[in-house]
Amino acid sequence: MRRSIVIFSSVLLLLLLAVGVTVSASPEAQSGPTTYTVVYGDTLFRISLRFNTTIQALASANNISNVNLIFAGQTLIISGGGGTGTPPPTGTGVPSNYVVVPGDTLGILARRFGTTIQAIASANNITNINLIFVGQRLTIPGGTGGTPPPGGTPPPTGGTPIPPPPGGFATGGQVFSFSYPDQMRGAGMTWAKSQVRYNQGDSPSVAQGAISAADNRGFNSLLSIVGNPAQLAANPTQYYQDFATFLGGVAALNPDAIEVWNEMNIDREWPAGQISGANYTQMLSAAYQAIKAANPNVLVISGAPAPTGFFGGCTVNGCDDNLFIRQMRDAGAANFMDCVGIHYNEGIVPPNQRSGDPRGNSSHYSRYFFGMTDLYGSTFPGKQLCFTEIGYLSPEGYGPLPAGFEWAASTSAQEQADWLAQAVTLARQTGRVRLFIVWNIDSTLYGADPQAGFAIVRPNNTCLACITIGAASQ
């Protein structure tokens, strides 16, 4: 619903988090140099923390002129420093402990340690092999491998960013014209979200354009697929099945993720009188099974409700999202999603604040970034969170906001950029957020729904947020 963009940085950064460590020396305190092989997601900053040294020392020891640019497979000399990081355990034939880091999946860990997904899942009582969390301590049963394999991908030419590993924290943006891919890359974004509207009888091929647009520009594709509320109202049971069949067909086209519906707790997107988390879960159940049957690699995200306390409960015309997601939980929705969809788009204070919103009802959870993550995380404690919309509204460059949006009148484009960058940092630090999709990149619509005021690409084609988000993603 809301989008904004920033000036493209001149250097494309490697912004992804590390998924493993490979060292050539023993994990004792180092008195002399050792070597380290860069893996996906590494930055000099993170390596310096791991080995208790400095960015400058690493750059000097390895003749690195651009401290923002290193490559998977590159061998670095680690001189001095007493830190050793936490090397992954080796395949010694006996169980070892391992702490999950951003980017890990059971498939990655199984390959690294010469074991199998099933063996790790069994040793740790994991029922959903697609779901592990940052900070989770795993027992790695004895495998066949020796030391973990080095990051063997050769350095790309031209400083092209390396794609993120599956399952790790990643950022992206919702696109309309998709006119600013370079600015998105400069911000460290690797995902592009588009919305697809389904009507009964549509062929899944209607989604091909959005998938190809992302693929051709080197982005992972997230499709938010929404249907027709009037058709749904006529025969919900049949519609659930038709919609699921359509989503299965879309999944076969190989998108990277599908969000099942959008803001289904309000009557703009769901039939009045039928709005409930239990009804939505029936749809989600059918959709999840159809998607996974067609393509088990597609990430399934539950539709994100509109964050609101407007209804004061649940009424014919809508339901506050805190109650709606509890209804989903009670109906078993956790069994039919890989990630919980969440929206946050009405903030007028920095995301690190938990109080102090100057509007009325300032204690309401939806006013605050942490209010939303705490609510959704506690409602679905076994699931990761996917922000499929997160944005800050600024009228700068557009003029007065329309009725109903006056609350954002004082927010500047610089605040928008700074707050988004802070939110990226905080989201990553939670260890619970998998996707951070900025609402939005490039909308030019500024009317009753001031989408352009959320866009990070501002009217003069500058993108302050691209710079700030890019810096926060290092």
Detailed description of the structure:
There is one protein chain. The model is unreliable at 1-31, 82-93 and 144-166 (pLDDT under 50). 29% of the residues lie in helices and 13% in strands. The longest helix is centred in the middle third of the chain and has 18 residues, at 277-294. The strands form 3 sheets. Strands 9-8-7-6-5-12-11-10 form an 8-stranded parallel beta sheet. Strands 1-2 form a two-stranded antiparallel sheet. Strands 3-4 form a two-stranded antiparallel ribbon. Helix 12 links the parallel strand 11 and strand 12 (433-438). It has a domain at 168-472: TIM Barrel, CATH 3.20.20.80. Helix 8 (236-251) runs parallel beside helix 9 (277-294), helix 9 (277-294) packs across helix 10 (321-330) and helix 12 (413-430) runs parallel beside helix 14 (464-472). It has helices at 44-50, 55-61, 106-113, 117-123, 181-186, 208-216, 229-234, 236-251, 277-294, 321-330, 369-379, 413-430, 451-454, 464-472, and strands spanning 34-37, 75-78, 96-99, 137-140, 170-174, 191-197, 220-226, 257-260, 299-302, 339-344, 384-390, 433-438. By secondary structure, it is an alpha/beta fold.
Shape, per Cα inertia axes = globular
Strand order of the largest sheet: 9-8-7-6-5-12-11-10
Please give the count of helices: 14
- The CATH architecture designation of one domain is Alpha-Beta Barrel
Distance between the termini: 27 Å
Tell me about the largest β-sheet.
Answer: 8 strands, parallel
Top CATH class of one domain? Alpha Beta
Task: Write the H/E string, N to C.
Answer: EHHEEHHEEHEHEHHEHEHEHEHEHH
From the alpha carbons, calculate the radius of gyration and give it in angstroms.
Answer: 23 Å
Q: Look at the helices and sheets and give the structural class.
A: alpha/beta
Low-confidence stretches: 1-31, 82-93, 144-166
Which fold name fills CATH's third level, the topology of one domain? Answer: TIM Barrel
Strand proportion, as a percent range, falls in 5-15%
